[in-house]
Every structure is written in structure tokens, then in C-alpha cells.
């Protein structure tokens, strides 16, 4: 299969990539995260919305940011609170995408910052559970944290992140990340090793421009999903994941015609993979 394809495979992000932002599920995720911050971490409600967004932008996920600045909580409890109460019925089966993915003659791997249970449920709701050879998620990227009770961090002082982001002249130095996730280069390096992926022969689909930028810098061929806006970091921009075949017909043509390098004009090598 790989020998006749332009790419060995692809990496695909899960949320807001395999299903659209308009589903409303991401809005519910944000709502649950903010509720966790208020109820479980006892953070001031008026500061939570800004902190939630800022930590996400700085550390890749709000949870990673909360850990970095010193909050002590169990990862599984966080995921259960945030994802365990989601209205997954918002997601509907997508037979068109299922057929499209099955017809794509290259390896396909999920690369998500979310936990495994959430990824499994989303794929089942979309009817795509048999479309990917593997899922690389929070637990696989952070194996030592899987059953972490964070007991050793119980006396950690909380970093004054709010002052840091609201006072431009602050001399405070941001804490280093404790969680491995996109868009950290370390997360991509682990994925390449775990899935035996050559980034120069891999398509990377994601809805986040930050993740796309890192992917591009790591040698991946990038597809920014959810927009048609062109950027130097994205080799392709798709309004919807459904548009793959229109944007990249070479993937299917290569399998049928067994060409040596159908994307020669774009300087993309043969035999690659897809990650999302």
C-alpha cells in the first residue's frame, strides 16, 4: 500500500479536525474546564475565562498550563470531569468521511492531546473507529503521569500567572511545562518514534495554527483544517476535512497509477504517512 502512494501515511488531529467546530463540542469542553478551575481548584471565577485561554495558548492545553504553574490535581479526575460529562450526542456518524478515509491508500494515525477514552468515544460517535491504525494521546505521550496522584507536588507554590500576563513589565519567568503535548516539539518527536514515522513523508492535519507551525518546523507536510486562509506554515488549507480529495487528488492517483513522484513540482517525496 505504501509503495504506491505519495505519502507513507498521515497524522490527524481529533477535535475540530475530524468534526467541525460548529458541532459545539469544543464549547462544552471549554465550559467544563472553566467549571473545573472554579469548583475543584477554587480559582477566582472572574479570572478563570482569561486564564483558561491564556494557559491554553502558552502551554498547548489549559490542563498542561495549570500543572506548569503549580496546581495539584489528578489527571484522570480532570479528564473525567471535563470529558466525562460531554454531550457526545452532538456528534453524528459521518459515512462520507468514513468512505473517504478507507479509500485513502496510506497509513493513518490519530495524534491528540486528549485522553484515550475521549478519543475512542469521538471516533465511535463519528463511525470512524476502524479508519486509523493507532491513537497517540495524552496517556501515550505522558506514560509516567497516567496514574499520577501528584502527591509530591502537594506543597508546590502556585505561580502568579495572572500577574505575569496582565503586567507587561513583570519580571516573572514562566514555569517550564510538565505535560508533553502539542505544540511542544518533544510531543512530535515522540510521535515520530512511537509510530515509526518519517516526517518528510507525512501529512499532518490539524485545526490549530500553532500546532501546524511546529509540525512544519519539524519537517511535516501540513494541512490546516477549518479555514481556507493561506499561510507559510501550512502547505494546504481546507475548510473541511471532507475536501481532502479535491485538495490532494494525488494521494489517490498515486495508488492507481503507481507514479514515482506525482508531486514532483511541489518537491514532496514519495511514500509517506498521514497524521491528524
Automatic annotation (TrEMBL):
<protein>
    <recommendedName>
        <fullName>Suppressor of disruption of TFIIS-like</fullName>
    </recommendedName>
</protein>
<dbReference type="Pfam" id="PF00702">
    <property type="entry name" value="Hydrolase"/>
</dbReference>
<dbReference type="InterPro" id="IPR036412">
    <property type="entry name" value="HAD-like_sf"/>
</dbReference>
<dbReference type="InterPro" id="IPR010237">
    <property type="entry name" value="Pyr-5-nucltdase"/>
</dbReference>
<dbReference type="InterPro" id="IPR006439">
    <property type="entry name" value="HAD-SF_hydro_IA"/>
</dbReference>
<dbReference type="InterPro" id="IPR023214">
    <property type="entry name" value="HAD_sf"/>
</dbReference>
Amino acid at each position: 500500500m505504501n509503495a504506491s502512494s505519495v505519502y507513507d501515511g498521515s497524522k490527524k488531529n481529533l477535535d475540530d479536525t475530524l468534526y467541525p467546530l460548529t458541532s459545539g463540542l469544543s464549547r462544552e469542553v471549554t465550559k467544563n474546564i472553566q467549571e473545573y478551575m472554579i469548583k475543584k481548584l477554587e480559582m477566582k471565577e472572574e479570572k478563570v475565562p482569561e486564564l483558561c485561554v491564556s494557559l491554553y495558548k502558552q502551554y498547548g492545553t489549559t490542563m498542561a498550563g495549570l500543572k506548569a504553574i503549580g496546581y495539584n490535581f489528578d489527571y484522570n479526575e480532570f479528564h473525567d470531569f471535563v470529558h466525562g460529562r460531554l454531550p457526545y450526542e452532538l456528534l453524528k456518524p459521518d459515512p462520507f468521511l468514513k468512505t473517504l478515509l478507507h479509500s485513502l491508500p496510506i497509513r493513518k494515525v490519530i495524534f491528540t492531546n486528549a485522553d484515550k477514552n475521549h478519543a475512542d468515544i469521538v471516533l465511535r460517535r463519528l463511525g470512524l473507529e476502524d479508519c486509523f491504525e493507532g491513537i497517540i494521546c495524552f496517556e501515550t505521550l505522558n506514560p509516567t503521569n497516567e496514574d499520577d496522584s501528584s502527591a509530591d507536588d502537594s506543597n508546590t507554590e502556585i505561580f502568579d500567572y495572572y500577574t505575569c500576563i496582565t503586567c507587561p513589565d513583570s519580571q516573572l519567568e514562566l514555569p517550564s511545562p510538565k505535560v508533553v503535548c502539542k505544540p511542544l516539539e518533544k510531543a512530535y518527536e515522540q510521535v515520530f518514534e512511537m509510530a515509526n514515522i518519517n516526517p518528510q513523508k507525512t501529512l499532518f492535519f490539524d485545526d490549530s495554527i500553532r500546532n501546524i507551525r511546529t509540525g512544519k518546523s519539524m519537517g511535516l507536510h501540513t494541512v490546516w483544517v477549518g479555514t481556507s486562509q493561506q499561510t507559510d506554515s501550512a502547505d494546504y488549507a481546507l475548510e473541511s476535512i471532507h475536501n481532502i480529495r479535491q485538495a490532494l487528488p494525488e494521494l489517490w492517483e498515486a495508488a492507481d497509477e503507481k507514479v514515482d513522484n506525482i508531486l514532483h513540482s511541489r518537491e514532496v517525496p514519495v511514500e509517506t504517512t498521514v497524521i491528524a
